[in-house]
Write the structure tokens for this entry.
Amino acid sequence: MVAVAPRADAQERAAPLRPFMKWVGGKRRVVPHLLGHVARPLGRYFEPFVGGGAFFWALADEPAQRQREDKWAVITDVNHRLVRTYKGIRDDVEGIAERLAILRDGHCKEQYYDVRATDVDAHRKDADVAAWMIYLNRTGFNGLYRVNKKGGFNVPIGNYTNPLILDGPTLRACSKALATVDIEHGHYQDVFFKAEKGDTVYFDPPYVPISSTASFTSYTRDGFGPDDQIALRDLAWELKRRGVQVILSNHDVPEVRELYADFDIKQILVGRAINSKASKRGRVAEVIIT
Ligand SMILES: C[S@@+](CC[C@H](N)C(=O)[O-])C[C@H]1O[C@@H](n2cnc3c(N)ncnc32)[C@H](O)[C@@H]1O
């Protein structure tokens, strides 16, 4: 018999909205800079590379958005397990809490590797996928999401003494907030057919590497290469011409400055929390492009 905390509405309302998972490239430290670039009142909001959604959650946490009953946001990612996780949290947060409570109580190295080896895509319920993702994210090395060519998750266990596997208040607050959000599995280019005048789009793509041994014309990261960076820039122009407010972030490197020469570019210095090498956790120059 597993003890699950009762649903606590007061606690749920009080819990701030924030990412329920760590995500490499997460924008928590950039959020204060980004907030100043968003037009108010916010129309519809699109985040096509949502990942952990740090900026999306900051906007969702504002009283104006918390009170909205329309579908005010569309979040999209190509990672189908991540998208199923968002859907699971929206549609069956209590089911996920139950699964995570079991995983929390049984947490050990052997369990981690058993869960990791599960064929999660064979599960029909989004709640199964969500519990799998969150458990591995909270207990795996540095919260990394990394898969082999066959899609098998291959991150080793992390070195945590007491990982927070079930954060009920955050999950329940996120679940409630997702009721007014469209969650889509897809390619970032899909936003071209959806965003209209007055909407806001924030693009946070896989970044151009800071220093790459390969040249800009040949590197690829996360399957997102130079051609994608150019196509993204062109899409940003098209949306801008349509009257959509476009905000992008990327590393402050010459390739990015050249690509976005006709946009407004602002440099910010950001502390990096997630890097497997402690020596690389310093401050990094990024740009906010509008
Ligand atoms: C830099 S991360 C976004 C981080 C996010 N802003 C956060 O705060 O956690 C980039 C995300 O884009 C997704 N992605 C990569 N290529 C994509 C594509 N072609 N279309 C949509 N999403 C893509 C990845 O799965 C990843 O979640």
About this structure: The first strand starts at residue 45 and ends at 47. The pocket of S-adenosylmethionine is lined by residues 23, 25-27, 48-49, 51-54, 76-79, 187-188, 204, 206, 222, 224 (CB under 6 Å). The chain has two domains: 12-78+186-290, 80-166.
